[in-house]
């Protein structure tokens, strides 16, 4: 074993832990620090683009620090040696765990919350992973979760949809709809992929199986089928994270809150219109009911007694009432001289008309009194006839 060439004249390779599309991961010994590490080695024949991608992964991981990310110790991107030396995580990948059967929903929610927190840190640093899948998730023997393999990640403001060979970057089984349809690739693609990974943990099966093209197009035809019988917060989180439109998905940080059950609703990513201050409405004041005293009307001046129309009012009484009304009106309406004069003229005219009517009435001749016959006296019957005729003639003559 001692005569085996060292990687970078420092790392002695041991058993192979796993394989990817372009690299293999080995258990290795750092001969200088005498510690066990993980060595990710690219296969021979890697082109310049592959070497650049490898070096970028090393730089990205070296610039991040989170409990859910493996620590980068060393790397080399020369034509002879392409390797990445990382912290060794003892434990299976998530794909190996799922192969044994579905996970309990609460365990899935806890695992998803850890991965969402890792993605939130990655996104806060302007990076899109673009390849979140079960084989890139490590579960340590003490239950911690790690997100690995940033080989195809890119800065969010400079992410490219295709590689130099014109192939869509990512794993078709976990791609977001916008990746398949050629749309913009941003942080929501990682949230969507994590949602499919967690759904696979719940059901124990791949949501969109099949060959690359078949699996990729399937998500454009139907939405993921999220089971109903799981806890409400996990069900709500999976529905939100796998929404077809990227603007409808929560952020990674919001996804962590949903999975933990601390969030009660999903906050949409669509920017809201500037808030307008609503008009202030004062709450109604509640006052004890008021007991108002009974209303007392002011005493009215004595009104003249109504008399039957067939009676005649004496002139002296009429003069007294008219003068009283005039004096009252003059006292109450003194500020308006024109109104006082008008009222006085009207009252005088009315008095004049009334006086004329009274004078005319009293000057009329009295009706003649009908003559009356003297009561009959003396003898009755025919014996009194000459005397009655004489009285009648006297009356007629006048």
Task: Please give a structural write-up.
The chain is of the alpha+beta class. It has helices spanning 48-62, 94-98, 105-124, 177-180, 187-203, 212-221, 232-241, 252-260, 315-332, 337-363, 385-397; strands spanning 11-19, 23-30, 35-42, 72-77, 82-87, 127-128, 137-139, 145-147, 154-155. The protein has a 5-stranded antiparallel sheet, with helices on one face. Helix 3 (105-124) runs antiparallel to helix 5 (187-203), helix 3 (105-124) runs antiparallel to helix 8 and helix 7 packs antiparallel against helix 8 (252-260). The longest helix has 27 residues, at 337-363. It is rod-shaped, with a radius of gyration of 57 Å. The model is unreliable at 155-168 and 303-313 (pLDDT under 50).
Feature tags:
single chain, 398 residues, alpha+beta, five-stranded antiparallel β-sheet, two-stranded antiparallel ribbon, 11 helices, 37% helix, rod-shaped
